Amino acid sequence: MSNTLLKYCGNKTLLDYQISLQSNADYIGFVFAASKRRVCPVNASNWVEMNPPGKKKLVGVFVNQPIEEMIDTAQRVGLDVIQCHGDENVDFMRRLRSRFTGEIWKVIHHKNEDSVYSLVAFQGLITAVIVDKKIGNQYGGTGTSFDWSYIPAYLKVSKSLGIPCIIAGGVNDETINELLFFQPDGVDISTGIESNFRKDKRKMTLIESMVKNHGKQRTS
Ligand SMILES: O=C(O)c1ccccc1NCC(=O)[C@H](O)[C@H](O)COP(=O)(O)O
């Protein structure tokens, strides 16, 4: 079996969430930030109450939002992970760390080599890093990849900090084999598991078989 962590993000309806629940994903994400995938905490909390996530962990995605809002949403929905997907700085992350006992993930929007080393400043404050692509004021969910030749550098730095490195942006059934070649710790997908803006079970199954087969090749 592959040990690559899998997160399915941007679950926008009860049906999306139920489809993700039936998948082999480790993490299920809700976007609580400005986005076409934004969900309201009351709806997400009702869905979770009706369909408890079992062993899967719930992730809330936020972009430059107040800590109080993150904590309220985390408590209401029962989030295991707060994912800061904006321009949150070290001081903000330190304050969040002192208020939230669960996992905290921080995005790095890859621009250039400096982006790789910007991760070091968050040492001790975050439990995983997500590397993603930002386009204009679209902080995530763009369906577009950053320059993957930088992945080995991100993996090296995150390993030295003792945290997993999760790759996001433009991952789908046509690109995932190329990504798995780099052996990331985790993969985060939103657009690539959708058809007509709704989560697609068939695409998830295809991606999961590729992740599983890749794991087999690595260990045999
Ligand atoms: O998904 C969004 O709409 C979104 C909007 C604003 C900030 C973050 C967002 N998504 C965060 C994620 O974790 C996505 O899975 C990640 O950006 C990858 O997206 P995609 O390229 O669509 O697979």
Automatic annotation (TrEMBL):
Pfam families: PRAI. PANTHER family: N-(5'-PHOSPHORIBOSYL)ANTHRANILATE ISOMERASE. Its EC number is 5.3.1.24. Pathway: Amino-acid biosynthesis; L-tryptophan biosynthesis; L-tryptophan from chorismate: step 3/5. It comes from Sutcliffiella rhizosphaerae. It catalyses: N-(5-phospho-beta-D-ribosyl)anthranilate = 1-(2-carboxyphenylamino)-1-deoxy-D-ribulose 5-phosphate. Keywords: Amino-acid biosynthesis, Aromatic amino acid biosynthesis, Isomerase, Tryptophan biosynthesis. Gene3D superfamilies: Aldolase class I. SUPFAM superfamilies: Ribulose-phoshate binding barrel. CDD domains: PRAI. The gene is trpF. InterPro entries: Aldolase_TIM, PRAI_dom, RibuloseP-bd_barrel, TrpF_fam. This is N-(5'-phosphoribosyl)anthranilate isomerase. Residues 7-207 form the N-(5'phosphoribosyl) anthranilate isomerase (PRAI) domain.
